[in-house]
Amino acid sequence: MIPQRAQGSPTLRLFRPDSPPGAHPEGPQLQNFYRESIKPHSDAKASTLGEHELAIHRWTQFCDWQIEKGIRTTYPALIEIDTQMVAAFLDWMVTVPHKNRAGKLAKASPNSANKSLVYVRSFVSTAVEHGLANPLGRTKRKKVQTGDHRIEIPPDHIDALMKACSAATWPSRWWRIAETETRGGHYGHEFEPALFWRVQIVWLFTFGQRRGDIVGLKPDNRPLCWCNVIDQAENPHPNGSAINATGWLAFTQSKTEKDLCLPIPTVARRWLDLVAATIPDRQPGDVMLAIGRSHKMFYDAWRAIATTAGVRPKAAMKMVDGRPVMSDRVYQLKNFRSTAASAIERHAKVGRLVTGHATNQDRAPGAVVDSGVFESNYLTSELAVLDALTTLPLPNSFTALLPAS
Q: Under a CB-based contact definition with an 8 Å cutoff, are residues 98 and 106 in contact?
């Protein structure tokens, strides 16, 4: 029986409109039907099966969450899955943190939630084909509105942003935050604020990293430490043999837990060396770009740089009732990740290996994550990645704004 809530408190109506609240239909559950009747006979490719598994993984967590909250006492039978329940599932995916494929608590992105929604509906449709008395219309649900397509920043706009960094007034001192610490003492070493923003732009464009892998504003971020830079010419990975005179960057992505080992190009290394020169007493476990964890200061400073630069992406266009509606957009630091991925992919077809973007095969719960150059045909890909990063065309400002050596 579904427990009744006090009058006036929010509740989810998770029973059929033509059944009394106390009725609990019997029949197969979605998870069991998928395992017994869909998966064994599926000829879908591995990436699609991974999405199937993720959808079932999320559905199971959603049902567990409902039981924990007292909304239900058992997993719903297939016959109970209607529009209202699917709507609750979709809302849950994008609003309630749950375990992702890496085992971390996180909300689903709109795109990812929509994929799981589609597969859950398709499983119910398959059950109908097997004789389940549940009309397809009962599980239709409008998808979550997704964000704009990934923005790519053109080189001349990157140059404008790099030049605008000279107007920055924050940060101007490094904090000493070791990887194992939540807060550290103040270094006291001063530097020009423009250096922090410029080296960040250069590295974001070169490697396509997420902001949390460079600047750790959240406790669960794992920002780069000085020990992540390996000062040797030969690739430090046991299976690697490529030579890069300016060293290697070995780190684990905070979001996906992917291990990456990438060659550091000359220009990116020169910018990093400028930072190193301002911190003579740095330790291997110290965070490279340690500026504290003030979200407000960080993003206020970036917005000021973007405003000073005077450049914007093209306006977004959406169709509303058959008519185009335009809306202004601004550049965000996360746009450098999509910019890098596109630039490297166009240049040498190894964008995914450098940025560590997840493949569909990675998305199944418990899947062995493909760690880019660590696992993908290593002896071949390391040379392709080395060539890509050392020959990638760069915005003019990356070298023009470097001090004369």
A: yes
* Domains in the chain: boundaries: 30-139, 155-400
Which tokens in the block code for residue 284?
Answer: 């291997």
pLDDT at position 193 over 90? yes
In sign, the C-alpha dihedral spanning 251, 109, 204, 165 is negative
- Residue 149: pLDDT band by 50, 70, 90 thresholds? low
Q: Name the helix (H) or strand (E) containing 339.
A: helix 335-348
Query: Per the confidence metrics, is the pTM higher than 0.90?
Result: no
Which residue's entry shows tokens 């065309």?
393
Cα(394)–Cα(205) distance, rounded to whole angstroms?
Answer: 9
Cα dihedral sign for 119, 123, 128, 132? negative
| Length of the chain measured in residues | 405
SS3 225: strand
Are the CB atoms for 162 and 397 separated by under 8 Å? yes
The tens digit of pLDDT for each residue in 26-75 reads 678 888 888 888 888 877 777 788 889 999 999 999 999 999 999 888 88
